[in-house]
């Protein structure tokens, strides 16, 4: 019986998911050993939980920056983006007339 396709996929994604919290934990250990200080558990837990989303935000911003630079190198402009504060297209569609 062959493995379901989800298990090999999850095995391939495991390093990507575990890398940010592992980096945070290693930094915690380095700070404790080199700085002779104790990092509270709640700070370590919060940092580990937020490291994945924080990395995602940084990667998306970096990708957008690269797209803007590439467009500028070709003399082009990026199309305007929808504002998160105005609910984007949903707000425009439900605007009273």
From TrEMBL:
Name assigned to this protein: Cytochrome P450 52A3-A
Entry keyword annotation includes Transmembrane: yes
Keywords carried by this UniProt record: Membrane, Transmembrane, Transmembrane helix
Bilayer-spanning residue ranges: 42-60
